């Protein structure tokens, strides 16, 4: 008897399945179709990524070329009728600026403030006098400068808040002219000290931080306070403080003038446009770019100026949630840190520096995360723009604090020498100096405690510097012995 044929069936119904080889054949056909479909999808995905990257590159190149051209586009807003010219000089310095023939020359006569020594600065008083003969109506020039400085004590301007958007082509200060003007004023102060005109030299130097104040406040009234304006303001304060420390032993001013200098410093610090406002301005760069792109694509101005509508960059920047995840850890963190005294914000600034360094490494050092950039090129664009646009905020913060501390220390230095001249002896400590002055001396901004003083044969007044540790390499010295440099 033959063996019954084995089959898989539902016995109760007597239903047989199709033969096995039929199922395998049908399954093989489905796998081929599925593989083909996957390949098509991958090719479309990869092609779309290449297309998006291609458009981002074209948009970025078009914007870069526009930035370096003279095209008049609404992305570059037209200045209002009452706006200054493209490169302007603060009103405080108008008529007292450096003549063109003296530009780039004044620095040869001005000691470099808190920097390395420079042999070019060892000019004789006779050479300085010859140089200043190039200033038209010199006597009237210096009298007007001092008069304008004293008048400013009662009418220092206040800054305005930043606008909602960055105005990319708004008029900017003539930074070179302003810096050279400050150096010219410093050279004049040095000359006045050689001529035993201490009061004139003192007030001429005080005019420089007032110029820095007008520069920074004026920027807020034109388009918003930008970081480069703050850094030029720091340079001006460094020039004033550095020269004041240099000529302090020769200054014979009245105690009343000295007190007015401290009062002026207090007013300037109170009315200053803070660095956090410049950081806020920097944080609005990418959102403002998105705003202007969307506006000008709709109006047709983008097409006229660029030859294309930059939709790829617009789509990348219009994702506000994505932007905030990148902007807030940098800018909001730094603004919060700047509201605290420097010793408390030091560690936060260090962590911020590590964050920006990590961002820079992400876009410059290839790794597996670059595969993500291929599928999300917008992420790379944002990180790239941030890495080239984000300044070293920690360094800028230290520079800002340092510039104000140098002015504080310079006035303390003048007080020390003035007391020593009148009393025929050096003060034993700061308390003795404060009792003579009739007011307390300003604290060290880097330690949020009294400025350091050591008496003896070589007395010293110094700030602990950014590291917060006394007698370290970054201490800022305000009483210089022979051959010593300011750090």
Could you explain the architecture of this structure?
With 487 residues, this protein is mainly alpha-helical. A hairpin with a 5-residue loop joins strand 7 and strand 8. A three-stranded antiparallel beta sheet has the order 7-8-9, with helices on one face. It has a two-stranded antiparallel sheet with strand order 1-2. Strands 3-4 form a two-stranded parallel sheet. Helix 4 packs antiparallel against helix 5 (198-222), helix 6 runs parallel beside helix 16 and helix 12 (320-338) packs antiparallel against helix 13 (342-364). 35% of the residues are buried. It has a domain at 87-280 and 395-477. The protein has helices spanning 20-67, 125-132, 138-152, 175-194, 198-222, 227-247, 255-271, 275-283, 285-299, 301-306, 311-317, 320-338, 342-364, 369-375, 377-389, 393-423, 430-437; strands at residues 9-10, 15-16, 87-88, 172-173, 443-444, 449-450, 452-454, 460-463, 476-477. The model is unreliable at 1-15, 68-74, 77-84 and 482-487 (pLDDT under 50). The radius of gyration is 33 Å and the shape is elongated.
Which structural class matches the secondary elements?
Answer: mainly alpha
Largest sheet: 3 strands, antiparallel
> Helix amount, in percent?
55-70%
Q: Hey, roughly how much beta strand do the residues contain?
A: under 5%
Overall pLDDT level: 84
- The CA-CA distance between the termini, in Å, is 112 Å
User: Shape, please?
Assistant: elongated
Strand order of the largest sheet: 7-8-9
Instruction: Please give the radius of gyration in angstroms.
Output: 33 Å
H/I helix tally: 17
Low-confidence stretches: 1-15, 68-74, 77-84, 482-487
Order of helices and strands: EEHEHHEHHHHHHHHHHHHHHEEEEE
Strand elements, count: 9
């Amino acid at each position: 008897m033959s063996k019954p044929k084995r089959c898989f069936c539902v016995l109760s119904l007597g239903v047989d399945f199709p033969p096995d080889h039929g199922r395998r054949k049908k399954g093989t056909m489905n796998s081929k179709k599925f593989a083909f479909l996957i390949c098509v999808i991958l090719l479309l995905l990869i092609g779309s990524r290449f297309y998006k990257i291609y458009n981002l590159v074209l948009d970025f190149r078009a914007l870069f070329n526009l930035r370096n051209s003279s095209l008049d586009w609404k992305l570059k807003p037209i200045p209002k009728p009452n706006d200054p010219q493209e490169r302007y000089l603060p009103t405080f310095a108008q008529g007292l600026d450096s003549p063109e023939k003296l530009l780039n020359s004044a620095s040869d006569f001005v000691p470099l403030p808190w920097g390395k020594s420079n042999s070019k600065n060892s000019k004789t008083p006779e050479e300085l006098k010859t140089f200043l003969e190039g200033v038209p109506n010199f006597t009237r020039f210096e009298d007007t400068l001092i008069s304008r400085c004293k008048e400013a004590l009662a009418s220092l301007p206040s800054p305005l808040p930043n606008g909602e958007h960055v105005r990319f082509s708004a008029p900017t200060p003539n930074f070179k002219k302003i810096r050279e003007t400050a150096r010219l004023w410093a050279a004049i102060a040095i000359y006045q000290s050689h001529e035993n005109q201490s009061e004139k030299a003192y007030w001429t130097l005080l005019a420089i931080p007032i110029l820095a104040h007008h520069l920074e406040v004026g920027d807020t009234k034109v388009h918003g306070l930008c970081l480069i304006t703050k850094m030029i303001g720091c340079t001006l304060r460094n020039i004033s403080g550095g020269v004041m420390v240099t000529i302090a032993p020769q200054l014979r001013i009245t105690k009343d003038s000295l007190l007015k200098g401290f009062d002026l410093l207090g007013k300037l610090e109170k009315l200053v446009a803070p660095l956090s406002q410049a950081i806020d301005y920097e944080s609005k760069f990418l959102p403002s770019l998105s705003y202007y792109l969307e506006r000008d694509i709709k109006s047709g101005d983008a097409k006229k100026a660029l030859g294309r509508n930059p939709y790829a960059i617009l789509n990348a920047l219009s994702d506000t949630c994505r932007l905030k995840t990148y902007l807030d850890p940098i800018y909001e963190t730094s603004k919060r840190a700047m509201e605290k005294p420097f010793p408390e914000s030091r560690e936060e600034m260090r962590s911020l520096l590590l964050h920006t360094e990590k961002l820079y490494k992400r876009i410059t050092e290839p790794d597996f995360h670059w595969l993500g950039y291929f599928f999300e090129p917008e992420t790379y664009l944002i990180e790239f723009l941030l890495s080239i646009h984000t300044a070293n905020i920690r360094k800028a913060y230290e520079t800002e604090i340092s510039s104000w501390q140098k002015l504080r220390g310079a006035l303390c230095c003048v007080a020390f020498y003035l007391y020593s001249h009148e009393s025929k002896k050096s003060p034993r400590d700061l308390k003795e100096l404060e009792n003579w002055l009739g007011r307390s001396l300003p604290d060290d901004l880097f330690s949020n405690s009294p400025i350091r003083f050591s008496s003896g044969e070589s007395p010293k007044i110094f700030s602990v510097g950014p590291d917060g540790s006394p007698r370290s390499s970054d201490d800022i010295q305000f009483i210089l012995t022979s051959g010593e440099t300011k750090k």
